[in-house]
Write a structure and sequence with these properties.
This protein is an alpha+beta fold. The protein has a domain of 51 residues. It has 4 helices and 3 strands, in the order E-H-H-E-E-H-H. A hairpin with a 2-residue loop joins strand 2 and strand 3. The longest helix has 10 residues. The N and C termini lie far apart (43 Å). The relative contact order is 0.17. The model has no long low-confidence stretch (mean pLDDT 83).
């Protein structure tokens, strides 16, 4: 997958590019400094900023993405 010739990508495209699940990709968009534009409920990722962010954060660990969320399942209402 190539994103070099695009200005923006969707979270789904980013997930595919990085080999992440869609929920993990959405979690990345909440990290301070991540190059995302929120348009209503849609998130648009700036490709140039994303590639720079990847280079700048290579080797970093984001604890919020590695720990399991407790109690995050919604209860089904009958």
């Amino acid at each position: 997958m190539t994103i070099q010739n695009k200005l923006t990508i969707s979270v789904k495209e980013m997930a595919g590019y990085m080999g992440l699940s869609l929920p993990k990709a959405y979690e990345l968009t909440h990290i301070q400094g991540f190059p995302v534009i929120n348009v209503g409920r849609k998130k648009i990722i700036l490709v140039e900023g994303f590639l720079n962010w990847l280079k700048d954060n290579s080797g970093n660990t984001f604890p919020a993405l590695t720990k399991e969320k407790q109690g995050s399942r919604r209860k089904r209402i009958k």
